Amino acid sequence: MASAALARPGPIAAAISVPVTGASNWRTEPSGRVIAGMGQPSPSGGRKGRDHGQAGPAASSWAGQSRVPHMAPGPSRGPMTPSPGTPPARAALYVDFDNVFSSLAALDEWAAWSFASEPGRWLAWLEAGAGGQPRRLLVRRCYLNPAGWHAPEPGGDLAAWVQQPRIYYSRFRADFVRAGIQVVDCPRLARLKNGADMVMALDILDALAHPTRFEEFLILSGDSDFTPLLHRLRAHDRHSLVVTHPLSAAAFRASADAVIGFEDFAEAALTEQPAAAPAARQPTTAAPDALPDPGEPAAQRRAILALLRRLVAESAGPLHLPGLGKRIHDLGAWVRQSRFGGAGTLARLVEGAEGLVLEAGPGGGWLYDPARHERPSERQPGLSDDPLDRLLAALHAALGPGQEVPRLGPEELDFALQRLAGMLPLAAPPGPEERAALVAEGSTAGLDLPAPAVEALIAWLTRARINWQDPPEAGTPARLARAVFAEITRRAAATGARLAPETVAALRAWIGLPAPPGAETAVEEPPPA
């Protein structure tokens, strides 16, 4: 494969930012080495990092002004550079989940949540060529401690949304599996160590002898203990790209061919569509809401609140937080670096602000003007008044994608359970013929039983491990209903979600189960696996 031969630079004294297409840019060091990255360029200069003391011009985007991944001096090869007609590089990906999640959470808890719950976004961004050239990720492994956990910042947006003191990493296993990533369990071996770094290193060394010659190794971790491993990869003439903390050990960053900082990786994790690496240098326009850093924390808070008031005033209804967060950060990199002008979180910034109220809810919550807008909890924007819609929205927020609850009314659900009980015994779960017959029976009875909803209902019963070979009895429909209820609540608990008491009550009523007398209806947080 062709690669750009670049001279090994000396210490970085300053950087010249050159704007390019979209959200990406190239940075040229005085030595002439070209650095690929994401984010808007901004003046160089030192600032104090939140927890890392004084940083000078050589510091990363988190400590300084530039949002470009920090590329420390490395081997003379430089990052992989595509040539016309070159096929995607054969690559292997290794993710130290606990390290990446905790590091991202220190920068932005929503970035950590997005990284863990929607890995397909940043996976596509890496495959498109971030930090080098397009690549095929032939090996995708994530090393995770299932009993590990993160405590959301008290009073923060994430804490208000998940409504539990801990987020267990095991809840994200299914998200990574659905993205085609192999999850390797690394339980804790000692009080503070889970052995993930050692298992990763051994797997990477094994991959060097794999019949498929992997041309590039991608390592997502801020652990500088991987420095000797990077030396070994270089000795075997393999390219390496690390996604790490900008202030990780200089030796670690210098040993890689390409480096992407966690803050820039967070931008990729949060974008609606992963941004591909730029193909050519072209001028870019600043975000429409971009604003120079006011400097003083009080002025920063006033600038952010002014934008929020303008957006709320222009909106006919409450604003959904995920989309609003993107507009806030369009003000500039200083919003994230200053942590909302020293407020820490958006909730703390808005607290007490005149004309603005922040309310948590499924999907992140809403911001609204109580004098102009109806309270979101009384009427969620974009959600009908149908109790079934509200129930399904709450369950979707708790279960996540890929765990769809059948969209059937109570009458249709009872009809389907009755007919499924009448089909027993079956050698296997109902197949296409049985499902089609059930849909036809519902139509004859004047009920709407969409085929996808019937399929989803059968999937939930199968997950609940009911025995399809049992003969039907008088109580079989109720037994199937209890199985669906138990499996939905169990899955919600397994993800670390806590269903609100009213959601559990609505779920019971929808399935047709009476509320247990004197029993607690809320599903409590499960213990760690």
Automatic annotation (TrEMBL):
Superkingdom of origin = Bacteria
- Sequence intervals crossing the membrane: none
Location of the region described as Disordered in the Swiss-Prot/TrEMBL record: 26-87, 273-296
Residues forming the NYN domain are 90-260
**UniProt cross-references to InterPro entries, sorted A to Z:** NYN
Molecular-function GO terms, alphabetical: RNA nuclease activity
> What is this protein's record name?
NYN domain-containing protein
